[in-house]
Design brief:
The chain is an alpha/beta fold. The protein is about 35% helix and about 25% strand. The chain has one domain: Rossmann fold, CATH 3.40.50. It has helices at about 10-25, 80-105, 140-155, 175-185, 205-215, and strands at about 5, 25-30, 45-50, 55, 65-70, 110-115, 160-165, 170, 200-205, 225. Strand 1, helix 1 and strand 2 form a beta-alpha-beta unit. The longest helix is centred in the middle third of the chain and has 25 residues, at about 80-105. It is globular, with a radius of gyration of 18 Å. The mean pLDDT is about 90.
Length: about 230
């Protein structure tokens, strides 16, 4: 099976994805700020540091696909000026660093699967059904997604097939929205988000994982795809 380099593989989605890809036989290289003992896991960990523009070059050994899952949690704090910058840089600088290493060392990467979000279309409620060809929004979430995707598109200039997944809200037991709402639900408090009348594009974590598997299995997929339930 192919070797895959995963950036941001220790988070909510990364945990499910790495477990599934290992189960079906992929070899995984994970970038992390604090490399772990890898003797028993079957996953190799390699150090990287965005502030120092550093990646352990051994992380790219034998790799032909990169999966990028990096990005600070949008809902983890108030959007102060410094927080807004952090949200953008955590997404863009990671892709820029990966791109520079691939370009400088001429690594033979065939495909990159990068993340984005349905926030690309703007945070508003409408009966309009949006497709990948719909226009972008004009708010902060849309801005984040646009610069995030622009950073990913750099890889096309190197001949790397680029796939971008605009994910909806991901539902799963151990993270995301469910992790925030479950403690209240267990107390009998069933809250609504906002006024409760807005549409929420969502996707189950297992469907996200299967999308990655499907893309990895195919050689003819590139471009942008909305990762949401019908």
């Amino acid at each position: 099976m192919k070797k895959i380099l995963i950036a941001g593989g220790t988070g909510f989605v990364g945990g499910y994805l790495t477990a599934h890809l290992r189960k079906i036989g992929y070899e995984l290289h994970l970038l992390t700020r604090t490399p772990k003992d890898q003797s028993a896991s079957g996953i190799k960990y390699f150090e990287w540091d965005l502030k120092k523009s550093f990646i352990d070059i051994n992380a790219f050994d034998g790799v032909d696909t990169i999966i990028n899952l990096t990005g600070e949690n949008i809902s983890a704090g108030r959007w102060t000026s410094s927080r807004r910058l952090e949200l953008i840089e955590s997404r863009v600088l990671s892709l820029n660093l990966l791109f520079e290493y691939v370009k400088r060392h001429e690594f033979n990467i065939d495909k990159i699967i990068s993340s984005s979000a349905v926030g690309y279309y703007g945070a508003y409620t409408s009966d309009t059904i949006l497709s990948e060809d719909s226009s972008s929004g004009n708010d902060f979430l849309a801005h984040i997604c646009k610069v995030w995707e622009k950073a990913a598109w750099q890889f096309e200039s190197l001949g790397v097939k680029t796939v971008i997944l605009r994910k909806g809200i991901i539902l799963g037991r151990n993270g995301g929205m469910c992790a925030k709402l479950a403690p209240l639900a267990k107390l009998g408090i069933n809250v609504s988000l906002g006024d409760g009348k807005q549409y929420i594009p969502w996707i189950d974590i297992h469907d996200v994982v299967r999308m990655y598997e499907f893309i990895l299995d195919r050689t003819d997929i590139r471009g942008v795809y909305n990762a949401v339930a019908p």
